[in-house]
Structures are given as structure tokens and as C-alpha cells.
Amino acid sequence: MFKRVLGRRDEEEKVKKEGRLPPGQSLTTRFPVLHYGPVPSFDPATWTFRVHGEVEEEVSWNWKEFQELPRTKLKMDIHCVTRWSKFDTEWEGVHVKTLIDNGLIKPKASAKFVVQHCEYGFTTNTPMDWLLGSNFLLATHFDGQPLTPDHGYPLRAVVGAIPNRSDLSEPYFWKGGKWLRSLEFVEEDQLGFWEKAGYHNKADVWKEQRFSYQY
Ligand SMILES: Nc1nc2c(c(=O)[nH]1)N[C@H]1C(S)=C(S)[C@@H](COP(=O)(O)O)O[C@H]1N2
Ligand SMILES: [Mo]
User: How far is it between the farthest Cα atoms of the chain?
Assistant: First the structure.
């Protein structure tokens, strides 16, 4: 027990020295679960993933079709606004930019922001640029295994920090919706669930943009 605590502290010291620990965060070796409301059930026979709004053609994939989309692996550090950070997390899923590059999603020139729509009406919003970044993934797997129901099975968005990629926007982890069902491309930004509840819309982990009254 005591040994474990020292292990965590040592790991934290290491990432701190590497410049990977954002201000006000501490390292966790666990994977906390955080969301509002119940965990939805999944029915592969009725599940669809839709892309709509400011796109040339609306698309809808069923679960089988979604699994056939081109896949990507991603390793990154994730930072929760409630102050835990988890390092070198490994995800697998679908990169939105790959879908766009392959002509599977065709955003209109008017598309500037994206709303992630999740089960039970949960939403979160980001600029479209963030979705195209290599630190944003529509993830089906964590650590080589399908997501657990608590962490968003069958599909969630994830966004975090890749060491030495300061060109990317690195927001807190709530900008990744669990139980994701659609992406809506929009012209004007629309605040999502936590953003309306007072979380900072930009959510930059390095600037500690946690709440919107901290301008
Ligand atoms: N659908 C949905 N997705 C959500 C949330 C939520 O309430 N509902 N909470 C967000 C928040 S605040 C965080 S910190 C992360 C937590 O993900 P985890 O439970 O896998 O750690 O999910 C995000 N995605
Ligand atoms: Mo959160």
C-alpha cells in the first residue's frame, strides 16, 4: 500500500519534469469514471452513428459498418477538470480527419464547429479544427480492450495531450462525449451540457480554463 503511494508520487515527479503535468493536476494510476446520469445500454441491431448539419451529404453507419471504417491507434495524456491526469493512455478507433480525407465525411465550407451528440441528450462542443487534430479520436477501444460500459461503450470521443505537440489544442477530457451517437457540423458554436453548466468553453489544460468565470 505504502509502496504503491510512493510509486504514484515518483511517476508524478517524472511527468512533471518532462513538462507533461498541467498546473493544478495530479497523476492517477486508476481510471476514474465521471458522467452525469445513467449508463445507457447498447443494442447493435438499432445503434447508428450519424454525421449531419453542415455536410454535403448526411451519413449514417450501423455498428457493423462503423467497425469497417479505417482505424487508428493513439497514445496520449488525459486531463480531467476534476484534477486527475492519466498518462500514456492507449486508444483505438476512428480518426475524423481520415474520414474526411477519404471522402466519407464532406464538411461544407460553412462548418466551423462540431457538436457531439450522446445518449440521453448529452452534448459537448468544439471547434472543427480540434476534431481534425491527431489528439482527437472516436474511440471503441481502451488499452487493447473494447470500452467498458462506464467509459462509453461502444463509442466515445477522446481528446488529450500528445507530448511535444504544442501545436495541438489540449482541452480537458470532458470535451470527449461518451456513448457518442452523432457529430453535428455547425456554423456557429453551441454550448454543450457542461459548458452550459459553467465549464469553460475553451477548456485549455495549460491555461487552467476550468470554469467560465475564470476569464
Ligand atoms: N455522455 C457523456 N459523456 C461525458 C460526460 C457525461 O456526463 N456524459 N462527462 C464528461 C466528463 S466531465 C469527463 S471528465 C469524461 C470522463 O470520462 P471517463 O468516465 O471515461 O473517465 O467524460 C466526459 N464525457
Ligand atoms: Mo469531468
Answer: 58
